[in-house]
Amino acid sequence: MKTLFFNIKELVQIRDSSIMKVQGQEMKILPTIKNAFLVVENERITDFGSMSNLQDFNADQVIDSRGHTILPAWCDSHTHIVYAGNRESEFVDRIKGLSYEEIAARGGGILNSAKKLEESSEQELFEQASQRIREVMRLGTGAIEIKSGYGLSLESEIKMLNVIKMLKDTYAINIKATFLGAHAFPSQYRNNKEAYVDLICEKMIPEVAKQNLADFIDVFCEIGYFDIHQTEKILKAGKVHELIPKIHVNQFNSIGGIDVGVKCEALSVDHLEVMKKEDFEILKDSDVMPVALPSCSYFLSIPYTPARKMIDQGLPLALATDFNPGSTPSGNMNFVVSTACIKMKMTPEEAINAATINGAYAMGLSDSCGSITRGKDANLIVYKDIPSLNFIPYAFGSNLIDKVMIKGSFI
Length: 411
Ligand code: NIG
Ligand code: FE
Fold this sequence. Notes:
Layout (H helix, E strand, L loop, with lengths): L1 E11 L19 E10 L2 E7 L10 E4 L4 E4 L1 E3 L11 H8 L4 H6 L4 H9 L3 H17 L2 E7 L6 H17 L3 E9 L10 H18 L5 E6 L6 H13 L3 E6 L7 H7 L4 E4 L5 H7 L5 E4 L1 H7 L6 H6 L5 E2 L13 H12 L3 H8 L1 H5 L18 E4 L7 H4 L6 E6 L2 E2 L1
Parallel strand pairs: 1-4, 1-5, 6-7, 7-8, 8-9, 9-10, 10-11, 11-12, 12-13
Antiparallel strand pairs: 1-2, 2-3, 5-14, 14-15, 15-16
Helix pairs in contact: 4-5, 5-6, 6-7, 12-13
N-(iminomethyl)-L-glutamic acid binds next to α3.
């Protein structure tokens, strides 16, 4: 099956295959071609260029894209979309004045979701997560990372990871799985935290690896959750089993977790709402991708990741949703991109780079996603007629998407 898009108003984020990520000043540059064509064969992009260079109109499907801007689909490198039920009563508790940490200390938060998850079957979880996957695909997401972390026991963590595998087997979207057994301490381990860390390292990680259920390992490194020593121990145990580290870090406090992430050669360090001066220094000269989650900041009314400062100091940055029932009940990457511009003062070019090419890097998907590149998956967002690229983050409440293509098929 060959599809030709012609007369494309603007084809955005065109790249050589050699580009893995963009950082610092490079993030300001978003290469585009005006009046372009694009060829998709089966699942892949095979050619693109300026209309003046189009010679061959032969295709099974020829689409006149006059007025349409085309972007690569969003790469959402941080989500928790497998969960049971919702936590809207905690949302109301926060409106009335409680903080996220106070709600968690009362047994709400992650433990609340863990209880609901324990009572749900794989099939129920799959059906709920399917609805969310279908929603985010319609919103333009073409690749997504999904974490476990509401199981908090060997059995329930495996159940979550099995659901992620079912999603992978069902949907065309690229899915990467992350084992996040170290999301919170189950209440029975409150007074014996090391025993839970041992359970993760000695039982859960080997089993997850044996069943080949995860690509990455993640830890919530935070006061009241996993300290830096426990974080390092868990990430290292994961590495022994070829699980690549990622961490939740610096969400509420800077406690040295970024240093641990860099030392353990994490693929990404995520959240970063609270950054000390030394945290910036540690990230420089590393290959770690910092990931900001602005809709989490929005929803919890906590600080935004200091994106401007990070990029101005030469760092790269990726943007992701953090879709989860507690801190971000939304998987809308369009909102993330707008919020990054509005609240974090990223330019539209920087935000689009962060949500595509750098998001792909943060999932180890640089070879297949994140840009319009020959050989990459044909994951595309076809926009309605928009006046300019800047209009995408500007019109933050409008649905500007006309069609989404995932691996060569319109959804
Ligand atoms: O990334 N911070 C830790 N984990 C999630 C929230 C989990 C929850 O509240 O259910 C996050 O924000
Ligand atoms: Fe998260």
